[in-house]
Amino acid sequence: MPAKKNSAHFDDALTGIEIERLTVRDKDVAHEAQRWTAGERGPVIDDPDVLAAADLTTFVTEAIKIGAHALSAAGQAHDAKALQQMLKDVGEKAAESTTKAVETTERATKTAAEAMAKAANDAKKAITEADAASRKEFTTSVDNAKKSLNAELRRIFGGTNPELIDKLQPVLDKFGADLDAKVKVGTGDLLAKAAKQFDPSDPTSPMAKHAKALDAQQEKLTKLIADNHSDLAKKVDEVVVALKIQEARNSVTTRTTRKGAAFEDVLGGLLQDIAAGMGDEYTDTRNTTGVIARCQKGDGVWTVGGGTAQVVIEVTDSIKERQWTPYLDLAERNREANASLGIVPTPEQNGGQSIRVLGPRRVVMAFKPEADDPALLRTVVMLLRASALAASSRRGADEIATAEEKITEAIKQLEKIDGVKKLASSIQKNATKIENDCTGINAGIQRLLTDALEALTEVPADQPHESGAVA
Question: Model pTM?
Answer without folding.
Answer: 0.39
